[in-house]
Amino acid sequence: SSFSRRTYAARAAEHPHPLARELLALMARKRTNLSVAADVATKAELLALADAVGPHICVLKTHVDIISDFDADLVARLQALAERHGFLIFEDRKFADIGNTVKLQYGAGLYRIADWAHITNCHVIPGEGIIRGLAEVGAPKGRALLLLAEMSTAGMLATGAYTEKNVEMAVANPFVIGFIGSRRFTEERDLITMTPGVGLHAAGDALGQQYRSPDTIITENGSDIIIVGRAIYGPGKDPAAEALRYREAGWAAYERRLA
Ligand code: 5BU
């Protein structure tokens, strides 16, 4: 039957990719399908947020190029938090250039993303050479890739035949463990969908973001992981309390899907 009807634990036991096995197993063990999107401006804020939400998440999603005082010490301390709390790090880099350039952007530069991000993602606008370029750097390090099959925003252009091409390329490339998108896309292999644009209260923001509920995304659409940002760390929020709330909502939605 559909992967969406199987438990994360059962899928972990059979997944061909070691990092996907690790992710699904930690989701089952920690009872969480929550990823927090940590779009904060400084090292101190990122570390404090990661420590506060760490017990509740399976994945910490970062945008390291937002951090004004990024340095190697930040990476070391994030890795220590990931070890202590048991979560993976996903750098939401959205690579989109030719294979040779993305190899450099992924492995080198100020951020050396491949050295610490378990997961990153790319647009397939350039064709499948982008996947091969990223795989040359990331696969030997045990990393994995998500394709941007859809986006969460109003008027986004990743639809129809473009989304289908993402699915074909993902199925064909073992370095790809899944998608960013709103639903389960294929039963051809157990590709994991992570969904941003999730919120329990707001409908969206002033710049095109659109929010849907954990029930819509996990129970109805068969996605695997909810990604939640400002609803957890925004003004006046208690990040640990909000992360717990979203963790419970996400897990309840998963249990309803299995039932
Ligand atoms: P929010 O605060 O929950 O709206 O943050 C959403 C995060 O997910 C933010 O880091 C975005 O960069 C990211 N995102 C998204 O919102 N929509 C998408 O389609 C993709 C990423 Br891809």
Relevant terms:
alpha/beta, binds 5-bromo-uridine-5'-monophosphate, orotate phosphoribosyltransferase activity, pyrimidine biosynthesis, 259 residues
Q: What layout of secondary structure does this protein have?
A:
Blueprint: H1 8-14, H2 18-30, E1 34-37, H3 43-53, E2 59-62, H4 72-85, E3 88-95, H5 99-107, E4 119-122, H6 129-138, E5 144-148, H7 160-172, E6 176-180, E7 192-195, H8 214-220, E8 225-228, H9 230-233, H10 239-258
Parallel strand pairs: 1-2, 1-8, 2-3, 3-4, 4-5, 5-6, 6-7, 7-8
Helix pairs in contact: 1-2, 3-4, 5-6, 8-10
Bound molecules: 5-bromo-uridine-5'-monophosphate (5BU).
Architecture overview:
An 8-stranded parallel beta barrel has the order 1-2-3-4-5-6-7-8, surrounded by 7 helices. The longest helix is centred in the C-terminal third of the chain and has 20 residues. The model has no long low-confidence stretch (mean pLDDT 98). α1 runs antiparallel to α2 and α8 packs parallel to α10. With 259 residues, the protein is of the alpha/beta class. 42% of the residues lie in helices and 15% in strands. Bound molecules: 5-bromo-uridine-5'-monophosphate. The site of 5-bromo-uridine-5'-monophosphate has 17 residues, from β8 and α9.
